[in-house]
Amino acid sequence: MVDFALPEEIEKIRDMTREFAQKELRPAAAELDLMQDPEAAYTSDTMRRVLSRAYEIGFHKMMLGRDIGGLGAPAMTSTIVQEELAVGDAGFASHLLVAPMIAGSAAAAKDRHPFYAEYLDAFVNDTKGEHGGAWAITEPQHGSDLFQFGQPSIHMEANAVRDGDDYVVNGQKSAFVSNGWMADAFLLMVHVGNGDGMESTATFAIPGDLPGMSRGKPLNKLGLRTLNQGEVFFDDVRIPAEFLVMPGGPAYKMLIERIVTGGNTAVGTLAVGVARAAYEEALAYAKERVQGDTVIFDHQVVKMTLFNAFRQIEAARALLWKSSWLLSTGKPHLPTAMAARTFASDMAMQVTADMIQVFGGYGISKENPVEKFYRDAKLLQIMDGTNEVVSLRAAEEL
Ligand SMILES: Cc1cc2nc3c(=O)[nH]c(=O)nc-3n(C[C@H](O)[C@H](O)[C@H](O)COP(=O)(O)OP(=O)(O)OC[C@H]3O[C@@H](n4cnc5c(N)ncnc54)[C@H](O)[C@@H]3O)c2cc1C
Hints:
Elements lengths: L7 H26 L4 H5 L2 H13 L17 H14 L1 H9 L2 H8 L5 H11 L8 E4 L22 E5 L2 E8 L11 E8 L8 E7 L5 E6 L11 E11 L3 E3 L3 H37 L3 E2 L2 E2 L4 H29 L5 H26 L10 H10 L7 H9 L3
Parallel strand pairs: 1-4, 2-4
Antiparallel strand pairs: 2-3, 3-7, 4-5, 5-8, 6-7, 9-10
Bound molecules: flavin-adenine dinucleotide.
The site of flavin-adenine dinucleotide (FAD) has 19 residues, from strand 1 and helix 12.
């Protein structure tokens, strides 16, 4: 039985998140977005204050099970919360989405190395926003290639070579690694062996301060400017074999597809949040701005533009809820996730552009928030695989 009514408990969580997003995330993001130097933004008191508040509430551990100290939110609840956070600011929402990346792996591997239990404990009890993970897979020469299977000559350049009880890792991950500049732990994917294509990518869950690891400058970019992204370098980094969580082989393809199915459902949800933020601002403006002796909302073409935005947002959300529901049943469906994500992010690009149009000339001004939403939306067509490449991958499953 399909039911769109939310239980009262989830409505309360949604309303609390909405208030937090409006009061804390939106104004902080507007301030940080205008800062020219990303390093200054990420080390600012504003950044620290907002992350502390978010961690105090527990947004960073929402999806982790209660048995390991998380809040145990089901996939649907997470989706609802992520949309609300993204209405406030999609950059902060992305940060909170990526942060638990290692804590989840640490829970599964906690008997294998003392680091995991210590990290998990620090993460779930963090009320200052000091701990967070990142997923480091893409490289300067291999972005979309992460979906290239069965081609022996295409593989990661960063590699791990077994040496006694350790692996020795050399190479670099790209400037796009979300949370890459601030993270204190990484899910790291590197090549093992000679040739054998992307399938020979091994996955390690590691501390972020191993000797020989270093970071580049945080990426200075178009949108999602509250999300820190940055390069990670590995120079003869010794990684104990206990940190290997997946050895490569057929497991690599399964792991990637699982990550991108969940990840892309989340990226699409962020896009719905960004589109909704722009729509809500434009609707309020259209009911106040007077031209031709009437509020512009009463001009049919403006009203239609707003209705079209509403229609697109509702359609995108419905697709995403279906993908979330499939995740919650333990049967993630890659084509549904990719359909939902590509539809939502293309929609957000169109809707944010249209909402600038509703604002007229005032829409391009940094005095108004809609130009930021337009810049944020663009990144969501590329994050976790470009819309083109994830669509091609999904099409193979039809
Ligand atoms: C906001 C954001 C967050 C990100 N977060 C992370 C992260 O946490 N960790 C991480 O490791 N990476 C992250 N990335 C990197 C992201 O996964 C890559 O940017 C993406 O996979 C594309 O790779 P690329 O940038 O190298 O572009 P390329 O792969 O060079 O693509 C360039 C163009 O060629 C097209 N193209 C490439 N290959 C094909 C093909 N086979 N068929 C058809 N067209 C093709 C693409 O669609 C694109 O238009 C993030 C990126 C963004 C924008």
